[in-house]
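Tokens in:
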């Protein structure tokens, strides 16, 4: 079993930004990147959680 460690602040903030964009696209209209986020909303959610999971499993991320 791999050793788990807390993710670095940058990794956490990137995952938070991805998940935040996906959530915001549900309720708000995002002017510049809105159509892209709405089109790939599920992948923004998945990507945010994958980045966070990699940050927990990997020490260097």
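Residues out:
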């Amino acid at each position: 079993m791999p050793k788990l460690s807390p993710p670095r602040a940058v990794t956490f903030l990137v995952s938070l930004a991805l998940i935040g964009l996906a959530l915001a696209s549900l309720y708000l209209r995002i002017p510049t990147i809105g159509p892209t986020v709405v089109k790939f909303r599920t992948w923004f959610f998945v990507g945010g959680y994958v980045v966070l999971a990699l940050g927990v499993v990997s020490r260097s991320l």
